[in-house]
Sequence to fold (468 residues):
Amino acid sequence: MRFALNDTITAPATPAETSALEVLRVSGPESLAKVSRIFSEPDRLIKAKGYQAVHGYILEGKDVIDEVVCLVFRNPHSYTGEDMVEISSHGNPDLAARILQLLLKDCRLAEPGEFTFRAFMNHKLDLAQAEAVDDLIQARTSKSEQAALNQLRGRLSNQISALIADLTECRISFELSIDFADQDLPEPDLAAVGEKLRNIRQELLAMLASGRQGRILRDGFSVCLSGAPNVGKSSVFNRFLEDNRALVTDIPGTTRDYLQEWLSLDGYPVRLLDTAGLRDTIDQVEKLGIDRTRSLMQEADLIVMLTDPESLDSGCCDSANLVSEKTLCVLNKVDTLGFDKLPQPDEWKSYLSASRFTSHLPQNISLLPCSARLEDGLMALRQALVSRLALPEIETSAALVTNTRHLAALERALTALDKALDGINAAAGYEFIAFDLIEAVSALSEITGAVTTDDMLERIFSSFCIGK
Ligand SMILES: Nc1nc2c(ncn2[C@@H]2O[C@H](COP(=O)(O)OP(=O)(O)OP(=O)(O)O)[C@@H](O)[C@H]2O)c(=O)[nH]1
Ligand SMILES: [Mg+2]
Fold:
């Protein structure tokens, strides 16, 4: 593991940009002593109580570098669990860099995630909570923030701990019967233990099921706008963003390379992709763009397949593309069909069934109306997207599993638990059942970090930003 634990580390906690304040963090057993060496009020700093702020100047020899406030934290009541100083300087990146250089004569530059790593090692946070710190910083929408905050506050950890306690209780009942087989202890009540394990299994299944939603909140939901050239993909993209981000012209083949932007739909983070229109072409550059479109369509969580009246009429809409589970079919430019506002579902249904388009479309396909030119033109598409995202409605107060590492551990716990249940059904030896239960507990313990490897910790903390 590349992190040492006994030295004093420092790093900026704010980005190097012109701002009102910059904050530099110092953590470790000698942090107060080390900061006091470059501070105009060394005695006051060294004697300061926890949570006390000390005003003074950062000095380089006799030169004053900046006027600052040092906020003191005393071990164990700090983020890392160690003595800490947070130096708030003026928000000039050059000044902050000079203070950092002074500190680095005496302290080591912290690696990304090292403050949080120390918090984990000092039992201020468990591993799932430490991961939530990074998720919270990276969260893009209100619902993502809520999920990360719940995890940081220990909702997931508490649920996992309760499951571990229940599994351990079951395991012990088997182990007692093995260890004291000669002492006439009552046999474990297999029906009751089996019932308890099945309840745990249900809970694991529910947590795994929440993983789809959790992944959306943490990593976002990718939506790929595709379709023939000129159907209005870039126009719809711009309308979603409320910005003229993509080039729009009436020349087919305008978009070549794809564009992507993040947006929040009802609090869910969506990665929206605008792509090159699909068609046969001999233009080499356009061909490359279309290859990209196809691979983006494969990777996307959802494809919005746009058509317009013209391309439906000319039959250049590839109907094979329209029918797939992850495809939403949309007819853009309904303003050109005489609608001056987006038709309501019933009105649209009867319009479509009487329209000339039915003959061009596969049976039973649902085609949403859309227009980049109408005020409420994206409404039906927006609602359809939200209902895909929000099913089933998330309970933001519940522990939601958002992290693939956690999902993998839950899967392993489930497999081990199923083996234990099979063992009970098959009247297997208690030692085998107990062994499977140990496996299940050990998989769950990886989530909270009671069981870890250096590799695993390195992977987790190295993705953090510096200063966290
Ligand atoms: N009437 C009408 N015109 C639209 C609508 N959406 C787009 N257009 C027009 O259709 C033309 C093509 O729009 P784009 O958004 O560039 O289409 P695209 O699908 O991105 O096209 P490529 O990038 O070439 O694949 C432009 O002239 C747009 O102004 C719409 O809802 N109604
Ligand atoms: Mg385009």
